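Protocol step 4 of 5: obtain the predicted structure for the target chain.
Materials: sequence only (see below). No template structures provided, no constraints applied. The aim of this step is simply to have a reference model before the mutagenesis design in step 5. Sequence pasted as it appears in the construct record:
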Amino acid sequence: MKDLTILCGVEACAIFQNSFPEQPTIWPSVGEANRIIEKFRSLPEFERVKRMINQETFTEQRLKKMEAMLKTQQKDNRHKEFTQVIIQRLDGSSAILPLKTDDDCVELDNVINQFIKDIDRKMEILQNEGSSSNPAPQVS
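Step 4 output (structure tokens):
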């Protein structure tokens, strides 16, 4: 718990109650826990609600975040797959373009356009390097 408060930069307390009829364990201390709880209770309701999260809400938020990450990774993988197939085709391979949906056609178009932009950029760099290394002769 202490590590969590340090890493997150927040005040926290914990009350642990096990199934036996013993006194609960309170961290960091009873007095400090009471102070933190009172500080929390003194906040306006909208501030308290804003800071509250239960396991279900936390899990839903994590799931949404993970789904977004999965979607991004799938798109990146698809882009790489198209790039690999295009390179194989340019090398003379008879690789089959995996076009199954309209989204595949859009992704293929994006990959091809990115190739064209990269080639144009590299050509511009080479032209600039060539013109700067071979200065035009000065006319006297």
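Step 4 remarks: The mean pLDDT is 86. The first helix runs from residue 2 to 8.
Proceed to step 5.
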